[in-house]
Design brief:
single chain; 294 residues; globular; two-stranded antiparallel ribbon
Length: 294
């Protein structure tokens, strides 16, 4: 199996103009490749190549894939906001009709990769694409790390309140602010990935050159605001988002450490890495709102 995270440039003004990033993991959780693509057909072609002669592929697309609402927000976005997790705000009006993600799904369907709201854990042979949220995944991984670092844990009966911890956690701004602020946020995010069980960030066949068109080793890059341009910081952010997307579908496939899907395909759904206590909190809000989850 191959697990592909796609940091899709999906917002109005960037779709078909700013490159999207693809990050590929194997079943062991090692990053084995990455690349950049500008349009949906190029992305689909890259996914087809990564999946060639493999026993299936699971794609995590870091973008809203199902956008049924003309205005306002999707139901899953309201659920995530209630538990203080970042959520994409998307409506058909903001795209002037058809969201760019629908073009991507059509291109992927052309290479036999089908949209699903629930890729099956531990099952080879499937060729699916699922919505994920890299910003939410990063916050959840940071949350899990607080327990491993020995801080008063939200995971213990007498520990901190989970909702309070989530609301107070600072969310790294990977794409906003001046270069110094962005570089600091990117370093923080890389550090979180370095310390995530089940993810092998460093592999020997990748390059430490951020200008390389493919196969960049994120762990070898010196994220220095004085040395890097905003465009290069954008590439690092895309690599981070793609890595988080690939990790999310890989973690779900392994069936360990916890994951859940909130919502349904046509109405909008998102796959998240979730420890047990966060799963219970999101499930509580989903039941209250009548939103399916699993």
């Amino acid at each position: 199996m191959r697990f592909v995270g796609c940091a899709l440039a999906w917002r109005p003004g960037e779709a078909r103009n700013r490159p999207s990033c693809l990050v590929v993991m194997d079943e062991r959780g090692s990053i084995i490749a990455n690349s950049f693509a500008v349009d949906a057909q190029e992305i689909a072609g890259a996914v087809e190549g990564y999946a060639a002669e493999r026993r299936g592929v699971s794609v995590g697309a870091d973008a809203p894939l199902a956008v049924p609402n003309e205005r306002g927000t999707r139901r899953i976005e309201r659920i995530l906001s209630k538990v203080a997790l970042p959520a994409y705000s998307a409506s058909r009006k903001m795209f002037g009709g058809e969201p760019y993600s629908e073009e991507l799904l059509a291109a992927l369907e052309g290479v036999s990769v089908e949209y699903t709201d629930y890729p099956f854990p531990r099952t080879r042979g499937q060729r699916t694409v699922t919505e994920v949220d890299s910003a939410a995944a990063l916050k959840i991984l940071a949350l899990e790390r607080t327990a491993r670092d020995g801080e008063p844990s939200w995971n213990q009966p007498n520990g901190k309140d989970l909702a309070q911890v989530l609301r107070r956690m600072e969310e790294p701004k990977l794409r906003k602010g001046n270069k110094e602020a962005r570089a600091s946020a990117l370093k923080q995010a890389v550090d979180i990935l370095w310390n995530t069980p089940g993810l092998r960030l460093r592999t020997g066949n990748l390059s430490g050159d951020i200008s390389s068109p493919e196969n960049v080793d994120l762990s070898k890059i010196d994220v220095n605001a004085g040395l890097l341009s905003h465009a290069e910081l954008d590439r690092i952010a895309s690599l981070l988002e793609g890595t988080l997307a690939a990790y999310t579908v890989h973690r779900h496939w392994r069936g360990r450490d916890g994951s859940m899907v909130v919502g349904t395909g046509d109405e909008g759904s998102v796959l998240l890495p979730t420890p047990e206590v966060l799963h219970a909190r999101i499930a509580e809000e989903s039941r209250a709102a009548g939103v399916p989850y699993v």
